[in-house]
TrEMBL record:
One of its GO terms (cellular component) is nucleus. It comes from Perkinsus olseni (Perkinsus atlanticus). Residues 32-102 form the HMG box domain. Residues 1-31, 75-103 are annotated as: Disordered. One of its GO terms (molecular function) is DNA binding. It comes from the Eukaryota. PANTHER family: HIGH MOBILITY GROUP PROTEIN DSP1 (PTHR48112). The lineage of its organism: Eukaryota, Sar, Alveolata, Perkinsozoa, Perkinsea. Residues 32-102 bind DNA. InterPro entries: HMG_box_dom, HMG_box_dom_sf, HMGB. This is HMG box domain-containing protein.
């Protein structure tokens, strides 16, 4: 008779264990959206244009960021001024909302 094959640890398929996810803590404090920098405002306003000019898709995140960064660095201070003004306004909005929320 043929010898019966014994089950070994390598024969058994591993059991996949799912890690427990932490529940988000709700501390009851209102959330205030942070202020955007001048660069991020520039990026929001020009992302689509840069994607079209360079033939990029929305999934090319790294390439989009690289091209946007290059465009930002090439700008003069006068060209960056409108974005800096918008960033200052957004910072004031953030401070107002933060004070109103008591944070």
């Amino acid at each position: 008779m043929a010898a019966a094959k014994k089950a070994t640890k390598t024969d058994a398929s591993p059991v996949k264990v799912r890690k427990a996810t932490k529940a988000k803590k709700d501390d009851g404090k209102p959330k205030v959206k942070r202020a955007l920098s001048a660069y991020f405002i520039f990026m929001q306003k020009n992302r689509q244009k840069i994607m079209e000019e360079n033939g990029l898709q929305s999934r090319d995140i790294g390439d989009i960021a690289k091209k946007t960064g290059e465009a930002w660095k090439a700008m003069s201070e006068e060209e960056k001024a409108p974005y800096a003004k918008l960033a200052d306004e957004d910072k004031q909005r953030y401070e107002r909302e933060k004070a109103a929320a008591g944070l």
